[in-house]
Amino acid sequence: MAEVAIVTGGAGGLGSSICAALAEDGLRVVVADFRKDDAEALAAGLKSEGREALAVGVDVGDRQSVEAMIQSAMDAYGQLDHQINTAGLMGRFAVADMSEEEWDRVIRVNLRGVFLCSQAAAAAMRPRKRGRILNVASGRGIAGAPYSAHYAASKGGVIAFTKSMAVEVASDNILVNNICPGRTETPMAQAGYTDEQWQAIKAEDPLQGGLTQKDEITGLVRYLVSDAARYVTGQTFLLRTP
Ligand SMILES: NC(=O)c1ccc[n+]([C@@H]2O[C@H](COP(=O)([O-])OP(=O)(O)OC[C@H]3O[C@@H](n4cnc5c(N)ncnc54)[C@H](O)[C@@H]3O)[C@@H](O)[C@H]2O)c1
Prior knowledge:
Elements: E1 4-8, H1 13-24, E2 28-33, H2 36-48, E3 53-57, H3 63-77, E4 82-85, H4 100-125, E5 131-136, H5 140-143, H6 149-169, E6 174-180, H7 187-190, H8 195-202, H9 214-224, E7 236-238
Parallel strand pairs: 1-2, 1-4, 2-3, 4-5, 5-6, 6-7
Helix pairs in contact: 1-9, 3-4, 4-6
Bound molecules: nicotinamide-adenine-dinucleotide (NAD).
Nicotinamide-adenine-dinucleotide (NAD) binds next to α1 and α7.
């Protein structure tokens, strides 16, 4: 049977590209997102092209909701091969002006969400002694992000979490890696910029810090779910110098 991948944040800018690439490669894809209607629309579009897809509404920061997401995938497809944690939030505040609520809002989704989804996915993968978890972190988790320190801290946390969990689950043949895109053209990245500013960013030379292209990300995801990456674990793949 074809492999099964859950993509959280699957209705988002990066997530939807990852879902489309994996479905095109013949995987059965679970589009999991807080925005259930958008997840359903994407899954319907994939199905209309002859792909296998299922939409699930999830709040990655809530354990019950995460466990229900994994159960939905298991009920529909009977196995889980890949858990791709793409759901994420961003906010722009100086540390001096950041409320505890804003700190918690971002950490809850970006870091706690990765923890809950990885823990529940590994539990579903362990009996088959195979599985892969791929966490979408960010170059900002390495370089920092002035005026988004909570975002940078959450992504740095994801990188450290990934390296730690990779060691713990290696004996179960579960591989855990993370990818760190640079700025990529999605609603999250464009928020707060005028069209003019965004066009200027787009015009930057990619080798001088311009945008990460979505096919760079999907290409890396395709590699990391492939047989060629069967011994790759605990690694951080940086797609742009941050
Ligand atoms: N776009 C960039 O420049 C960039 C760069 C580096 C890393 N990233 C990371 O890539 C990932 C995807 O970002 P994007 O640019 O596609 O953003 P996006 O806003 O387009 O997509 C994020 C998705 O996550 C979903 N989501 C938010 N909270 C959720 C929750 N509690 N439960 C389930 N789903 C939830 C949203 O509904 C949305 O569909 C994020 O983790 C982001 O931090 C993005």
